[in-house]
């Protein structure tokens, strides 16, 4: 019995010391319990970050197509009218609005919108061609 108490008196403090020592970081690999805890926390974080896909709304696509058509018609009408006051400013503003609608349509259709200067005709043409390839009309 004395041997058991002596063994317990020597082993218990050593076990407690090792458990406390494992909590401090070391330059070697991290303890297994930290790795396991980090993996579990990653699983929980992934579950919380998961975004649910919103249902596709075809009427939103139709609305963007209608707006694209209306703005394109407006720009063509401005370009054809020589007597409009501040014609250049109106054309530029209308083209910028058209470009924003094109970018929104590209996001809806899954077309990559490349960073370009505002009013870049080459980027506008590329987006129009990509949307037309995907069946968009306006």
Helical proportion? over 70%
Q: Which class do the helix and strand fractions yield?
A: mainly alpha
Please give the count of helices: 5
**Nearest-integer average pLDDT:** 88
Structure, explained:
- The chain is mainly alpha-helical and 138 residues long.
- Helix content is 72%, strand content 0%.
- It has helices at 2-23, 32-49, 58-80, 87-109, 121-133.
- Helix 3 runs antiparallel to helix 4.
- It starts with a helix and ends in a 5-residue tail after the last helix.
Summarize the SSE layout with pairings.
Layout: H1 2-23, H2 32-49, H3 58-80, H4 87-109, H5 121-133
Question: Notable features of this structure?
Answer:
0% strand
Summarize the structure.
This protein is mostly helical and 138 residues long.
């Amino acid at each position: 019995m004395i041997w058991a108490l002596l063994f317990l008196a020597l082993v218990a403090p050593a076990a407690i010391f090792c458990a406390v020592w494992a909590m401090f970081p070391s330059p070697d690999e991290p303890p297994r319990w930290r790795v396991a805890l980090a993996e579990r926390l990653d699983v929980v974080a992934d579950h919380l970050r998961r975004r649910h896909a919103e249902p596709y709304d075809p009427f939103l696509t139709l609305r963007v197509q209608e707006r694209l058509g209306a703005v394109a018609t407006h720009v063509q009408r401005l370009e054809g009218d020589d007597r409009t006051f501040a014609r250049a400013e109106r054309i530029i503003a209308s083209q910028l609005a058209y470009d924003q609608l094109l970018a929104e349509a590209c996001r809806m259709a899954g077309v990559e919108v490349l960073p370009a200067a505002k009013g870049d005709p080459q980027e506008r043409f590329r987006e129009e061609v990509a949307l037309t390839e995907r069946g968009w009309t306006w």
